[in-house]
Amino acid sequence: MTENTVLPGSVDTLVVGAGFGGLGMASRLLAADPDADVLVVDKADGVGGTWRANTYPGCACDVPTSLYSYSFAPHPGWSHTFARQPEILDYLERFATTAGLRDRIVGGCEVLGAAWDSVAGRWQVTTSLGDVSARFLVAATGALSAPSVPDLPGTADFPGVSFHSATWRHDHDLTGKRVAVIGTGASAVQFVPEIAERAAHVTVFQRTPAWVIPRPDRAFSATEKALYRRVPLLHRMVRGTVYTFREFLGGLMAHATALLPVVEKVSKAHLRRQVRDPELRRRLTPDFRIGCKRILLSNDWWRTLDRPDVTLVDERASALTASGVVDATGTEHAVDTIVWATGFTPTEPPIAHALRGESGSTLAEQWAGSPAAYKGTTVHGFPNLFLLFGPNTNLGHGSIVYMLESQIAYAVNAVTTLGDGEYFDVTRDAEAGYNDAIQRSLRTTVWNAGGCSSWYVDATGRNSVQWPTFTFVFRRALRRFDRDAYAIRRVGERVPETVVPEAPAG
Predict the structure, then answer these.
(1) 155-215+246-340 — its CATH code?
(2) 37-65 per-residue burial string, b: 16 or more CB within 10 A, e: under 16
(3) Which pLDDT score, from 0 to 100, does residue 501 have?
(4) Which residue of 278, 310, 363, 383 pairs with 425 in a disulfide if CB–CB is 3.0 to 4.6 A?
C-alpha cells in the first residue's frame, strides 16, 4: 500500500474498496491496459475488505476454498477445504503485491461524498484525504461492510463492554465473563463455540432458529497441495468439479421444492446427534423451509447450545439495563459483556448515501430502501458508475468471487470500449425491464416462498439481494458491455432532464 497520502487531482478510474471486488477490478483493468490510470482507496489501513474487518474467533469462509479465490490467481496452498479468515486475508494481501497494485492503493481514505458533474462528464469525489475527479467510479464496498446494531432502550445504562462481531474487541478477555450473544446467524455459529470454552456463561438470544448442516471441512494434505502446485490443471479440474456440484445442488434447492425435505432431514439428523434434550431440539427446529434463510454450516453450534454453561433464550432482546439484557417476555439476564451478532445492512449500504447522480439525489434516495440496478452493476441516473456486489447478485450456494469476476469483466469492457469524451447512462427502460424479470424469477424461489422473514427481502417486500438462478447465466449476461442498453453521450452534450424514478414495484 502506498505511503503517499496525497491524492492525485484526477484519475481515470477510481475504485472504492480494497476487498475482493476492488482488487479484482484494478488488476483486470491493468491486465487489459498496463497503462490504465486506476486508483483504489479504502477507509481501512490495509487491503482485505470484510476479511480484514472480521477477526472474531473462529471466523472462516462457508464457501469451499476451491472456489474462494480469483480464477486468474489460483491458490493451491489452502490449509483446509473451508479457509480461515487469516488465510483469506493473507491471500488478498499477497495478491495485491503480486498483481502490482500496492502503489495504486491509498488506505485510510474514506469517501465522504461523490457527485456526478454532467458538464465535465466526471465524478467529483470528496474523501477524508482530499478531493479527486474520476471519469469512472467503481463502488466495491461490499454488502457486508456496515454492521447493524439495534438501538435498544437502556443502551446507555449498560455499564459493561459491548461490541459487534465485525469489530471484535480482542483487548477484552472473555475468560470468566458472563456473555450475551444477540443473534444466531453465520458469525454467531462460528464464534459462540469458541468463546464458550472460556466464558463463565454464555446466553444466546435467538429470534428465529436456523437450519444448520454439517460443514465438510478437512485439512489438505501436503501431498494434495504439492500436486496442485505442480499440476495446475488438476487444481482447475477440482475447482470445476466443486463449482458444478454446488451449482447443480444450489439450483435445485432454490427452485425444486421436492429436494428441500431431503436436506431438512439431514439437518434434523444433525440436530438429534448433537442435542439430547427434546425440548431444546424443538426450540432449535425452524418452522420455515430450509434455504429460505441462509443455511448455516457448523459441526459444533448445536452441541455448544447443549452445554450446561450456555443458555438459549428464544426471545428477542428488547432492552438493556445496568445489570444485563431484558428479553421480550420481560425477563432480565445478568451479563457483563454483550456481543452483537446482528449482521449488516445489505439493502442500505453506506456508499449509497454518499453518491449523488444527475438529478442531485443520492443513490439511497433514489432506491428508497429497495436497491435495484441493471445487471446488478449500473443504475439509471448515475453515469459511469459501477456497483460490485450490487443488488440481486448475492448467492445461496456459490462463491461471490465468481459473480464479482463477471461484473468486473463487464465493467472493464465498458471502460476500454467507450470512446474519448463518451460516458454512459443505462436507460430507465433497460433497468426496469431487467429488474422486472429478476423479480418474476424470484417469486417461486425458496427465498421468496419459503415462509420466513430474511435480510434478503427489503423494507418494501422486494427481494433485492439474491440472484435467482444459475451463476453461469449471470456470467453469460455480462460477457460484454451492451451499449444498446445505454444512452451514450459526449461531454458537453445537453443532458435530458432527469426525473428520479419511483422505487421498483415488488
Answers:
(1) 3.50.50.60
(2) bbbbbbbbebbbbbbbbbebbbbbbbbbb
(3) 52
(4) 383
